[in-house]
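Methods — Computational structure assignment.
A single polypeptide chain was analysed. Its primary sequence is given first, followed by the predicted tertiary structure written as structure tokens.
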Amino acid sequence: MQKGLILRSTGSWYDIRNADGHVFQGRLKGKFKLQGLKVTNPIAVGDHVSFEVEDEAENTAIIFDIELRRNYIIRQSVHKTAHGHILAANLDQAVLLATLAMPRTSLGFIDRFLVSAESFRIPTTIVFNKADILNDEGLAYQQEVIDLYERVGYDCLITSATEGEGVDAFRQLLDQKVTLVAGHSGVGKSSLVNAIAPNLNLRTNEVSTFANKGVHTTTFAEMFELAPDTFIIDTPGIKELGLMDTSKTEIGHYFPEMRVRMNQCRFNNCLHFNEPGCAVKDAVEAGDIAESRYMSYLSMTEGSDNRR
């Protein structure tokens, strides 16, 4: 039995890298369930597995077991809403690539991703790409958004893959870590990765000017080694991000600015809706918690279908 790392998942077949760096094409041994976790992909990129070589000539293998995950980022499945889809597992950090134009990444989408990462205490940096296409008004708004998230405690970075702005800082951010890079289609994930690792030659596409939306260029999540102990996981563009495995009472704990105020609420089961003596509501009214963040919180706790 060998140990391996899942580099790529195509649904039924997996690229497995063993300790020697050789990559096998693997598949699961029969049905595979994860302790009651309802997911469309029982094995995800970043998983560590045990496998046996099935056919050396064909370079195939059979996966028998999966090691316990340190963490993972999961979203609600688009096609099977009762199931989740694991974007990646065993991460050191996540990078959310956002653009404020062509296409626009909404603050609600950013907040949902941050909550998903916070639920497993995965550090996240927000990278604002395509700074070169913003006019003065757009740049001013971008700085307002950056100020909002930096006040909460999130690191932010401005980049332009085409102009080279922030590319070195992006490269340094990834050093010696396993990083999930995620975002809407068209935000420039592949272009930015190509700027620091041109040998990967990831496929890119222009954004449709008609719909102001990106075109999917990545079909399956895939892990790439940029340098020794430095890995990135490139994911298909995320259109919607429905939360999974998160109850109403938990969501507030994943907003850092709410978490620090919870013990100041009059009731220990306060949901921060209309309860009297709510420290979170008082902070929103005082401007100490951004209204956009509070509205995102309400959308998540009320089970809104607004996942963009």
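Note: The two ends are 43 Å apart (CA to CA).
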